[in-house]
Sequence to fold (583 residues):
Amino acid sequence: MASTSLHGASVGDRIFRLATTAFALSIPLLLVLLAIDVAAAAWPALKTFGVAFLTSSRWDAVDGVFGAAPAIYGTIVSSVLALLIATPLAVGVAIFLSEFAPAWLRQPVAFLVDLLAAIPSVVYGLWGIFVLVPFLRERVMPLLADRLHLGGTPLFSGPAYGPSMLAAAVILAIMVLPYISSVTREVLMAVPRSQREAALALGATRWEMIWGAVLPYASSGVLGSIILGLGRALGETMAVTMVIGNRHEISSSLFAPGYTMASLIANEFSEATNDLHLSALMAVGAVLLAITLVVNVLARWLVWRVQRQGQA
Amino acid sequence: MTAAVTMDLEAGTAPGGGVTGTGALTVENFSFWYGPTQALFDISIDLDPQAVTALIGPSGCGKSTFIRSINRMHDLLPGARGAGRILLDGEDVLDRGLDVVHLRQRVGMVFQRSNPFPKSIYDNVAWGPRLNRRPSRRELDDVVEHALRRAALWDEVKDRLRENATGLSGGQQQRLCIARALANEPEVLLLDEPCSALDPIATQRIEELLWELKKDLTIVIVTHNLQQAARVSDRTAFFYLGRLVEHGPTDQLFTAPREERTEAYITGRFG
Fold:
């Protein structure tokens, strides 16, 4: 009697284990298949243009010449710029919520910040076109170029059209802020009380405690949250497409329109009539996939290193 | 008494049992509340410089609450409040106008669980001195070495000051926390069950260390371990249910307690 029930349990266990193993393996398999598919479809374009696909700025569907450099440049610059804007804000919000906010304010503010992540991308884009872009064109760009006399520098030169790299970066910053902020908040709240007490007992002010003990303890988590934001920014399509201006040109000025890889694919896949054009778009997709993979691997490695520094 | 204390302060000598030196603590009618719950009732005791005072008593009797009041660690706790006076060299530490940062530099604290920062050994000890002064590299090296020597840790770590403190053994970590507190040159050292997570050998090293340190510090130690209190302390105070039942020289309290409850506790009839 006892032995049969034991036997039954072990069969059930085996089936369960097989099933979960299959589920677990199916996801990496899907990723591998997807990567292979994209790479195969991208191959004709990559073979035709070689390195020039990554370095050339000429994207001409009529002549069948494709160079994706402006889109690659635009993706990286808009994302990095977005992080530069969003990180201090998001970490500031997280510090306020975890360390300073009175209890009655903490939940509502945290909820509203998290809600930013729930707004559909296209709504951000619409707001970007009708509110953010005019605001940048009429207030911020003149302020930067004329009032602060930065118009002569490469970063802020040229006419203020409105749709621009700057607009894309600002909208991306707003979109990634809740991700960075909510992960950072969780990480800060997880810093043990003993660490805070150690700092306070040594005569630290509240600010010195946060800066000298809480943030260093949480550094690997904060770094992880920034990378999470970067991953979001790299792939964001809709809102960026609506405000970046979509022009195949690399310009040093943030006031100039640009392009991103995701926008390029979204704008052209429906018009891609010949095989080479379609393959070129697939190649852009492959590059985007590769960049996000590299960023994620790099992020894991960074977080691991910081953790090791912290705990080994 | 109050008048005498003030005058002593002006004359530059410390009150408290007539012992000269800094770091004398005089507690007068101190009570403490966590919100509506009263945790301490009318505590009055002198904590002498150059001596170890052990606080004993069953769990929840207020020992930790009391010790944490001395360096105002309750400040961040909403609803916590104290009444009465705790005088450090004649100055009331409960005074709202008091500079808490300065107080905590004068009154170091070591916690139940060692809590080194996940930084290098050197940076742990240098953390306090770096806060308010801007010491030169050379000065800082001296401060770190001196503090580690006083905490009897120097010989074990001098060759790996740059390594992470979390790689040290439990006993070493706790001595590092003592060194970190000492680097601020405090006058008072508060220890909240510093050995409760340590093995007997590590415990013995810390007890020997306290014996050395008390030559120039006021040491107050909370302990659950009666043998430890008997070994390390000059005076012992017995807390029970938020009240200071009895305090006096350690040998007297352990051999001839005045109060029945003290006797019951030290002979193991409750606790």
